[in-house]
Amino acid sequence: MELNKLLFDIIRDNKLHIKWLNALSLMENTGARKISASEDPLTVTYIILKHAAEEHRHAFYLKKQIEKIDEGSCPTYAAEYLLAPAYSRYYLNQLDIDVCRYLKNELGLAGNELRFAAYLLVTYAIEVRADELYPIYQEALENAGSRVNVKSIILEEEGHLEEMINQLKKFSPDWELHAGKAVDFENRLFSDWLNALKESLQ
Fold first, then answer.
1. Distance between CA atoms of 76 and 79, rounded to whole angstroms?
2. What sign does the dihedral 110-47-45-51 (CA atoms) show?
3. How far is 177 from 171, CA to CA, in rounded Å?
């Protein structure tokens, strides 16, 4: 698989690896901030609070993993400390835009309803991706004998996906159709991100 080769090349070069970890941390942090931004101040639920807290923890945990490779490097999310910085920033924001446009056009949603539905669909698509990406990354880390590990993130992401499916079932009887659209948007953006990562390695 293309991703396996890419991760092999990243992990064997410490400078690339710390920027990769920092890009993942940025994306987890962006996701956490988006979840918080979607909250209704009165009706926010336990699950949403839990999810936002865990995504923030993932961002912090990935930062801590960088210290196993090169302590003190990548102090911020500035472009020079990221792999494919433009695409790493663009990824989640564009997915949010694509999903919101779909929900407006297909379901006529607006305001709080739109924000909550977008949270459900965007998060679902990202959790589907995380359930694929992090185990592949963990296997690559083990094969390389790296001290870095993401096992705790894998366990929490599996729980997140189940939680999102439960919420989506309550949201709409056609949740699988809508979720499939979000996954389609994410697949295209993930492919673009992989291409940008490959270019950054050249």
1. 9
2. negative
3. 12
Cα–chain-centroid distance for residue 16?
19
pLDDT: which is higher, 184 or 1:
184
d(CA 178, CA 181): 5
Over range 32-37, report the average pLDDT: 90
User: What single string gives the DSSP state of each residue in 113-136?
Assistant: HHHHHHHHHHHHHHHHHHHHHHHH
Find the distance separating the first CA and the last CA of the chain, reported in whole Å.
19
Contact 150, 34 (CB under 8 A): no
pTM of the model: 0.95
Percent of the chain topping pLDDT 90: 84
Provide the H-helix boundaries in the chain. 2-11, 14-38, 46-66, 85-107, 111-144, 151-171, 175-201
Measured from the Cβ of residue 135, the count of other Cβ atoms closer than 10 Å reads: 15
The secondary structure element, H or E, covering residue 91 is helix 85-107
Residue 13 is encoded by which pair of tokens?
Answer: 């070069």
